[in-house]
Amino acid sequence: MNMYQTVKDTVNINETTIYFELYQNTPDKPVIVLIHGFLSSIFSFRHVIPLLSKNFTVLAVDLPPFGKSGKTKAFYYSYFNMADTVIKLLHQLQFNKVIVAGHSMGGQIALNMALHNPTIVEKTVLLNSSGYQKRLKNSIIFSSYLPFFDHYVKRWLAKKGVVGNLRNVVHDHSLIDDEMISGYSEPFNNHEIFVGLTRMIRHREGDLIPNQLQRIQNPSLLLWGEHDRVVPLEIGKRLNKDLPNSSLISIPSTGHLLPEEKPKIVNEYILNFVYS
Fold first, then answer.
1. What is the mean pLDDT of each run of 10 residues along the chain (276 residues)?
2. How far apart are CA 180 and CA 183, in angstroms?
């Protein structure tokens, strides 16, 4: 029996619409914020949310232009602005202390939140987080201003097909079922997302550099799939060295989609990290 109340809603922040799902537990339970990765959405946390909701108030957010959040041209698609947008959502919901868990690209959003808002972000959990990626080359940024560049972005991202992409990010291919295929096909059903991604090419400032990471003093837990072919374990080891108060745990027989592949293990490690 679920002991939490569920709210699914949208708010307008930073000139776009933000979709969120809130699984409200009792006031004594800590708040954990879930931030998805590139070309994903809250959908990627569907297995871990019911587990975390037993011991946390869970806030899951669709970053623009993904999921059910806005895809407007008015939004500035930098990591800093995405992090600021989530922080403003926390203010609206009157959450003053949170744990932030980010998967893949979402890990960089979590780190930006921790860097710029250390009094709000008590702890961070990085799930196969991206790291050390630089801003795109000027030639690609300039090309993004060409007519119909958004159509090129769509073709480039779709060239392997959804199943092909899933086989690259999931270690155990038997986990790839119709539900997963349908969920990760969703971005390709709305062309406006590729207009937003074109603007992200222009706005994304690159991942945090070592001297920024070294300023993050709040505790960080790094959970990594040992067979991650998208963000290899070596990135996790580098982040572990650069984040002063961090620990790294590698999980065998797991690829990049850690919340999909090992939700029970993710839940157990987060529980130990927060409550120990």
1. 80 98 95 97 98 97 97 96 98 97 98 97 98 96 94 90 94 96 91 95 97 98 98 98 98 97 98 94
2. 5
* Residues comprising the chain, all counted: 276
pLDDT at position 1? 42
Which residues, other chains included, contact 51 with Cβ-Cβ below 8 Å and sequence gap of 6+?
263, 264, 267
Residues 207, 79, 87: CA angle, nearest 5 degrees: 130
Q: How far apart are CA 261 and CA 65, in angstroms?
A: 25
Local structure of 98: helix, strand or coil: strand
Active-site annotation holds for 256? yes
User: How many other CB atoms are there within 10 angstroms of residue 94's CB atom?
Assistant: 6
Active site residue 104: yes
DSSP-assigned states of every residue in 25-84: --TTSPEEEEE--TT--GGGGTTTHHHHTTTSEEEEE--TTSTTS---TTS---HHHHHH
The CB density around residue 1, as the number of other CB atoms within 10 Å, is 2
Query: Across the strands, what pairs with 125?
Result: 101, 221
Cα–Cα dist 129/106, whole Å: 7
Predicted pLDDT at 72: 94
Distances (CA, A) of 183 to 42, 163, 234: 10, 11, 29
Active-site hit among 40, 44, 53, 104:
104
pTM (whole model) above 0.85:
yes
